[in-house]
């Protein structure tokens, strides 16, 4: 299967015709053409001119107050101006929402601890290039300036597309008919500078709108460039291991039954992310007749992203215990009658020091078009017909250059190019091990080297380079739906909503590596790991694969001093908490084009598909729903309610590759494809829902919600085969297994797809009390329970996998997805929001917004002590505090966001369970100041990550920090005009 010869399947006419015909029958069955239409609850919603912080907060409260279920809302403070830099950063202000950051910017989100969140655009599904194969929203490529607001729907309703276990996000763009009559223009220009990147980045937003009540059009364009400092200290590659005492009593207790737990690699990385974003949105509205309106939307996004890192990395090359210290810390019992120890400060006897450079690129592009016809006659019947087409593409590359400062003699890595056997980096440091001081006790993880270490460029050699995990994804989406509304003149039943929907989504993914041809002796092969210390096999005919025994190696010496001008830079410091030395590193920017870079070192590279992570999935759904809406009096209390159900049938066709034991290349990760097969499955879900809103007083609302939810699976979890991770055995493991140190042995595996997985299913319960004590004041408390019936989780199983020679010698951990049964997430949210306009001047411009979420969770996994672990990426506690001031031309805002510790990932089995990696609690501060110095013209400045908060990731114990993601403060200056 080749992704290059792509087609653009669309929803054919017969599908649309069948949908329309079916809904016409549905209209008839509901008794079409009755008399007058009743007023809906939406008629009570106050229309607010949203300009500024106070008006935006007031609109948010208004949206929540008159909603028909449990929801929260964010409204833009002006055209092109959401409260924060990114969509995710804005959403984190809503109770129950937690975000993850990419290069310091908000990217992916959870709602109430769950990433299974449906994202809609103006009420319907759309394709995002950041989440083609996944469900969790990733808004990195979507400019916030394109949106007028976001609704977060937390209680299910029958007429809202199912798909979010914990909630649904509805991104809203502006409508021309909402503008004042005539023309409206807005221009925004910004310049942003980072405290660590020290580069100034531009941003431009342009808006043009026209409305004459009969015809309207809006065009919004947003473009920005950003260079984000994103340093990383600690584990550069995430492998860890438990090593047993053999011939060294490392902790000096007089026995040899203890073990040492450590990460295999530590390093300090200078990392920057460069992003160019473009977003375009065009909306046309036309009043075709008094009863018929047309709305057309075009939503386009494009982002080019390069994540570049360069730095120094140390490891023990799978040797013996490398830490020397007087302060080893006992952590837990091992299976040898001793204990497992860690260390926070040590002298490391390092066998390999690497000059490591890496470039990861992500190019994304998506287009979504929507065509909506709305009918509103004089009778009780109204309705809409909508057709949507979307397409999205994503291209990802990874390119690695692994240079040595050490010679390779420390761990027996040799080369033999026919001119004799020498260490792989003959000019490098060695053969003795390198003393490196290591500490995790301070604010930053640190590495310390001897004075002058790394200053001589002639001692650097590019030993290994490769490009793997590259992929191209593309998807198309077609949706046709028709919705009807029938109004009644009764005391309680107000109207009935009903509809049919059909959708088709096609997803393709091709994963590939780059291989180059090599010949040593009489052996020729295509190679991915172009490692000058690697051998293709027994080239001298002695029956063994051993470089020390005389076999030839591939590649050549690539000294940094011989590389083209501009390829190698001398880098000082390597960021906060870095090594404090100067090192020579290959500039990762020259690696953005993997094919060009790899060919410059080893010519003749070509793409080779990796079938274990290449697949095609076609998904079709048919949906029908009804929802009855009620309003009236219960005694002296007024109420609104809705009850309904949604039926969804899902059909999946999956093209899965069949894999063999042979390989189409040497020293590579690609598997042999022996065939392919289509797998077919379908399932149906009936999802009832109910929402009840009781007005206890004019200002106090009690809400209750119930609903069943179903979330479609990530495409990547359905298709794909097993991929095997291998590494050079080295001397210690080679002795244990009885193999050559140069053999690539299996160390881990990944089962990339399970077509039999069931989707996430849950029953949601919501209860809230809301007090609207004035038009800009709110105090509410909400309780929620998600009873999860089936879910998907990562499991680690031990499985025998073949080494590079096809022989299975031992079991290694294999990560896969499995269905879990049972479990729940429950918690509560508290919100307080108020404008203090009752205070005397000048304090009457103050306002605040506070919220707190408590969402504990449990999973089937336990930590090394047998303690239950939460759901991954869920913080038990999260909170937001915003203090703002708006009076006259002045606007000020200070915002804080807190997340408690969250489970980041699971490592290998240890003790009574598995080793958990946690992200420590974080507290981010942002601020904004604006001044309107003329009518419709303002200047402003904003600061994100005011205190330069970072992320600390620790393994089980909070003092055992293994990784730090260091983000910068970013200061923006801007000017905005509207006319």
UniProtKB/TrEMBL annotation:
Organism of origin: Pseudoalteromonas neustonica
Name used for this protein in its record: TonB-dependent receptor
Domain TonB-dependent receptor plug residues, every copy: 65-159
Chief localisation class: membrane
Location of the protein in the cell: Cell outer membrane
Domain of life assignment: Bacteria
Signal peptide positions (record): 1-34
Family assignment from sequence similarity: Belongs to the TonB-dependent receptor family.
Domain TonB-dependent receptor-like beta-barrel: 447-946
UniProt-listed Pfam families: Plug, TonB_dep_Rec_b-barrel
Topology in membrane: Multi-pass membrane protein
Lineage: Bacteria, Pseudomonadati, Pseudomonadota, Gammaproteobacteria, Alteromonadales
